[in-house]
Design goal:
- By secondary structure, the chain is an alpha/beta fold.
- Helices cover 19% and strands 25% of the residues.
- The protein contains 4 helices and 14 strands.
- It has helices at 39-47, 124-138, 196-210, 249-258; strands spanning 5-7, 11-14, 32-35, 55-61, 67-73, 76-79, 97-98, 109-115, 145-151, 159-164, 170-173, 184-188, 220-221, 238-240.
- A 10-stranded mixed beta sheet has the order 3-4-5-6-2-11-12-10-8-9, covered by helices on one side. It has a two-stranded antiparallel ribbon with strand order 1-14.
- Helix 2 crosses helix 3 (196-210).
- It is globular and about 45 Å long.
- The relative contact order is 0.20.
Amino acid sequence: MKKLKLMILCIVVAMYSSSCDKEEINAETSLQKTIEPTQEQLDKLTSMQVSTDNVTIEDIPILGGSKDTYLVADDILIRVSDLAKYPEPEGIDQKQYRFSFIVAPPYRNIRILGYTGGGFALTAKMRTALSWAVANYNALPNTLNFNLAFGTNTAAADIIVYKVNGSAGGSASIPNPSGQPGRYIRINSGTDAFSTNVNEHVIGHEIGHSIGMAHPGTGIWIPGTPFPPSEPSIMQPSFSASVDGELTPSDKLALNILY
């Protein structure tokens, strides 16, 4: 069978959570108000090992009905007002990588919600895949623990996983400077056309971003991880229709070193 290559649309959203009693999922997804970045902004992205081949500044709708302004660099979103808060990574090498911030000890008991409301509800296949992906992370002998629930009570969740329109793939926010996990994981509707294993892979990849794992070759090297990894990492930015959705030995090693 010819292997079908798909790109994971991992829009890594550097956004921070705010306290609120009620959250609503906003259906608006269009990008607006596109302007060019300054040279200073491009230099900062370069120092962060982010590609500057195609960078714009856009007003992007986010959850709760509001909009915010982001630098858009391929599949990565970084809030303009937070750009200066991200330190320049050190130790760049071709191994396993993390973002500048990971989940701090007080936040490692993570409440993760599979959203089931309205048009943003995860499909049955996605819900099964989310359960499998969470089980993979919980099986690791480290300090992270995920408590999975399904429903619409977003106020009681640290991470919200929900469905949006789009081709196979997903997007995720990353840990904030306070050490909280990335709050939002969006799974594109086109992912449901593929196997449960593919859905497990995409969701597992996005969970990785939400707890601080970066694409291989970007971010900060995790000391102790090998090159080349023993198997392709679940954090690779592309995947095939034959993926099994499991964490590889290299992934497990990196996560156990971090946590």
